[in-house]
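Let us work through a complete example step by step.
Step 1: write down the sequence.
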Amino acid sequence: MTRTGTIEDHVGRGGIRFDAGRHHKAKLGFVLLAMEQTIEEDMFKLAPDGVGVHFQRAPMANRIDVDTLASMVSGIGDAAALITPDVQLDTICYACTSGSVVIGEDRVFAELNRGAPGAKPTSIISGVMRGLEALNTKKIVVATPYVDPVNEIERRYMEERGFDVLHIEGLSIENDEDMVRVTPDYILEFAKQVDRPEAEAIFISCGALRSVDIIEALEQETSKPVVTSNQAMMWDCMRLAGVRDKHNRYGRLFKDF
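Step 2: predict the structure and record it as tokens.
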């Protein structure tokens, strides 16, 4: 047996040569909402060579409110069980920011563990908070596409974990189909409107928004670190899996931590 870099090569029966495959650094699993249209493309964009991203969808009505988010609990574990069931994942993530705060991380993690035992469980909101902590930021503003009841739950959730939410504002969109069509230039304008001078960082919440596209521009215009749901999710999943690769794009979080 020989080792080439981090990949082990060996010869099997009949002289067939095997290595660790394309995903030799890590295999990451993501449980998506049934109607999700943005996250998969973002994860492929953010994943470095050697990191595999694998997806399954959990049932949910095409409406983002407290009741529909809370109703999908058992579907999280069922979906997780279908992601590469015979191959061990390194990390498994529930890929919904608002669902994470409505359901709560403990229940989300229990469902992920039920479906994918052995994988390290996480969620978008977990990654966001770890990212903000890595950036040493506590005073934040939050821009969301959500309705006010969901915003209030998210505000309380983050404040209970030590963050000072100076301002949170949503676009009052309930239909996920509309969230995915909000233009990146509008997200940039909206986030700047939500910002406050005393804020240490800007958090753009929701995996459906195309906010990874404007991280660099928003950081340059505000001189503040910007954390978005999908950026923080990939960063967190990689770091939990022991992958330390960095990006020269997609904000200070990926560049420096």
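Step 3: interpret the result. Confidence is low (pLDDT under 50) at residues 1-7.
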